[in-house]
């Protein structure tokens, strides 16, 4: 059973083809600069499993052309992995926002598309782009089932006291103002892996208390009890919570009108300030990339040092908070670009949490050979485990899509 996964952005299209008989990726790639300057300087990256990446300069004026080029590459006589488009049995689409309507993946119907359109107001940068990919694929391979997998779905198990804000209740009822959470496919994937690892150690699944830390350019954490998300750091938008590459995370909401008044900013400008000029970039003054911030800190840049400290402090604070709301802690999971590859951030994010039973093997944490591997970096006698688990959102989307086919 071959399943194609599509993750469509406003000017990009990430794709991966899986053989779900064994869960193996056959090919993957990325279409970049779709529609920018007419799509005349776009690039299509394609890689067949076990082969070097092929990069092609092509014209991609819109996402329909991008999808057609992806399908052409997959069926290419020399480099492709399929003989015919009919070999693709289903397409799984990443959709960022499903609101309260979708707590699980669903077959895409006209009614589902209409609902995704309605949630464009809540995710104006993402849902419209996701719809572009859905419509392009439906047009080019119309007889193939298409499944929507929502980033927000995993967090729909949060209790009301965790997702409501302290605002007039009518704002929730009339406008849907509440915490939704994002990165759900990543949190769910690594949590499922961690659940298996803890079960092997004799911890019953229904009792497990896990904190998952998705740390990349965008960052979020989740409290997962008995396999269900009961709290998460991202809120109504992907701005709340942790310090991120360019996003500020938690702040006093009264700062917004203060900054607008003092700096003469309008709503769009203050939104840009918080989303694109803050975070690691804004605090360090160096970069939104943690690697660049580390390099500057190593040279004595004080703002870079503060940015790293602030980043790790926020993670450590939420680990403690989530251990409290779950009433215990069995594991902490680090994933995504920083979480998987930055031993200093992992170490500093758990320093001082020994009272929660956390203790890591420092040599194992710093071992570069663990990159890309599922690894327990805990000390042998640690009561609470610390796992590094590479995320694979595309594989989870493919699994959900294949499960729909198997159960239909």
Structure report:
The chain has helices spanning 63-74, 110-118, 127-140, 160-163, 169-175, 184-200, 255-263, 267-276, 279-284, 290-298, 302-326, 336-341, 343-350, 362-366, 393-407, and strands at 2-8, 12-19, 24-32, 42-48, 54-58, 88-95, 106-107, 146-150, 209-215, 219-225, 228-232, 331-335, 375-376, 385-388. It is α/β, with parallel strands linked by helices. The chain has 2 domains: 2-150, ATPase, nucleotide binding domain (Nucleotidyltransferase, domain 5, 2-Layer Sandwich); 202-393, Nucleotidyltransferase, domain 5 (2-Layer Sandwich), CATH 3.30.420.40. Strand 1 (2-8) and strand 2 form a beta hairpin. Helix 1 packs across helix 3 (127-140), helix 10 packs across helix 11 and helix 11 packs across helix 13. The mean pLDDT is 94.
Architecture blueprint of SSEs:
Elements: E1 2-8, E2 12-19, E3 24-32, E4 42-48, E5 54-58, H1 63-74, E6 88-95, E7 106-107, H2 110-118, H3 127-140, E8 146-150, H4 160-163, H5 169-175, H6 184-200, E9 209-215, E10 219-225, E11 228-232, H7 255-263, H8 267-276, H9 279-284, H10 290-298, H11 302-326, E12 331-335, H12 336-341, H13 343-350, H14 362-366, E13 375-376, E14 385-388, H15 393-407
Parallel strand pairs: 1-6, 6-8, 9-12, 12-14
Antiparallel strand pairs: 1-2, 2-3, 3-4, 4-5, 7-8, 9-10, 10-11, 13-14
Brief overview, please?
This protein has 408 residues and is an alpha/beta fold. It contains 15 helices and 14 strands.
Main sheet attributes: strand count, strand direction, barrel closure: 8 strands, mixed
Stated plainly, the CATH topology of the largest domain is called Nucleotidyltransferase, domain 5
Number of discrete domains: 2
Radius of gyration: 22 Å
Strand tally is 14
CATH architecture of the largest domain: 2-Layer Sandwich
Percent range of helical residues: 25-40%
Between the first and last Cα atoms, what is the distance in angstroms?
14 Å
CATH C-level of the largest domain: Alpha Beta
Low-confidence region ranges: none
Secondary-structure content class: alpha/beta
Q: In DSSP terms, counting alpha (H) and pi (I) runs of 4 or more, how many helices?
A: 15
Order of strands, main sheet, comes to 5-4-3-2-1-6-8-7
Order of helices and strands: EEEEEHEEHHEHHHEEEHHHHHEHHHEEH
Instruction: Label the overall shape.
Output: globular
In percent terms, what proportion of residues is strand?
15-25%
CATH superfamily of the largest domain: ATPase, nucleotide binding domain
Mean pLDDT rating: 94
């Amino acid at each position: 059973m071959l399943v194609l996964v599509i993750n469509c952005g406003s000017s990009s299209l990430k794709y991966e083809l899986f053989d779900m008989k064994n869960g193996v990726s056959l090919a993957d790639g990325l279409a970049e600069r779709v529609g920018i300057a007419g799509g005349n300087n776009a690039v299509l990256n394609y890689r067949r499993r076990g082969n070097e990446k092929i990069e092609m300069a092509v014209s991609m004026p819109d996402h329909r052309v991008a999808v057609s080029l992806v399908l052409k590459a997959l069926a290419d006589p020399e480099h492709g992995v399929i003989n015919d488009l009919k070999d693709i049995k289903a397409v799984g689409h990443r959709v960022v926002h499903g609101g309260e309507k979708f707590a699980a993946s669903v077959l895409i119907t006209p009614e589902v598309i209409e609902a995704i359109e309605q949630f464009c107001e809540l995710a104006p940068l993402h849902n419209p782009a996701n719809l572009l990919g859905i419509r392009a694929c439906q047009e080019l391979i119309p007889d193939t089932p298409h499944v929507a997998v929502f980033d927000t779905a995993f967090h729909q198990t949060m209790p009301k006291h965790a997702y409501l804000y302290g605002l007039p209740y009518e704002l929730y009822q009339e406008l849907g103002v509440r915490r939704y959470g994002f990165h759900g496919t990543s949190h769910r994937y690594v949590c499922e892996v961690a659940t298996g690892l803890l079960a092997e150690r004799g911890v019953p699944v229904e009792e497990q208390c896990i904190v998952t830390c998705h740390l990349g350019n965008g960052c979020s954490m989740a409290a997962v009890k008995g396999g269900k998300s009961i709290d998460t750091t991202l809120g109504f938008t992907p701005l709340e919570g942790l310090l991120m590459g360019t996003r500020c995370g938690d702040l006093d909401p009264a700062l917004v009108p203060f900054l607008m008044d003092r700096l003469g900013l309008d709503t769009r400008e203050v939104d840009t300030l918080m989303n694109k000029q803050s975070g690691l970039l804004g605090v360090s003054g160096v970069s939104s990339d943690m690697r660049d911030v580390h390099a500057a800190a190593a040279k004595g840049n004080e703002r870079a040092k503060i940015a790293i400290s602030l980043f790790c402090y926020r993670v450590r604070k939420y680990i403690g908070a989530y251990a409290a709301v779950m009433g215990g802690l069995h594991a902490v999971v680090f994933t995504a670009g920083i979480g998987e590859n930055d031993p200093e951030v992992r170490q500093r994010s758990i320093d001082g949490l020994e009272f929660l039973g956390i203790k890591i093997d420092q040599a194992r944490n710093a071992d570069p050979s663990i990159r890309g591997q599922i690894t327990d970096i805990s000390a042998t006698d640690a009561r609470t485990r610390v796992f590094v688990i590479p995320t694979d959102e595309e594989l989870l989307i493919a699994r959900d899509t294949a499960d729909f086919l198997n159960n239909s």
